[in-house]
Amino acid sequence: MFLLGTIVNGLLIIIGTLLGRLLTKIPENMKTTVMHGIGLAVMVLGLQMGFKSANFLIVILSLVIGAVLGEAGSWRIS
């Protein structure tokens, strides 16, 4: 039973994929609202974990490095 988490994760991915294929007529404003809600939940979770950190400098450096790497994909060399 040591792979239970992996099996559950895989099954939920398959179920989510099937639901996504079936539910194609979701209004755009509902999609936007749900995505904003998920984003807010991720931000709250990240803040909670960041405040629990014993070394806040690592949290700050991680945010800076993540921001730089995230923006690096949009750089264009002309």
Question: Explain this structure to me?
Answer:
The protein has helices spanning 4-22, 28-52, 56-72. It has 78 residues and is mainly alpha-helical. The chain has one domain. The radius of gyration is 18 Å and the shape is extended. InterPro entries: DUF554.
Kindly list the characteristics that best describe this protein.
single chain; 78 residues; mainly alpha; 3 helices; extended
Summarize the structure.
The protein is 78% helix and 0% strand.
- Beta strand count: 0
Total helices: the number is: 3
Q: Provide the residue-averaged pLDDT.
A: 88
Structural class: mainly alpha
N/C terminus separation = 54 Å
Helix content: over 70%
What topology emerges from the helices and strands here?
Layout: H1 4-22, H2 28-52, H3 56-72
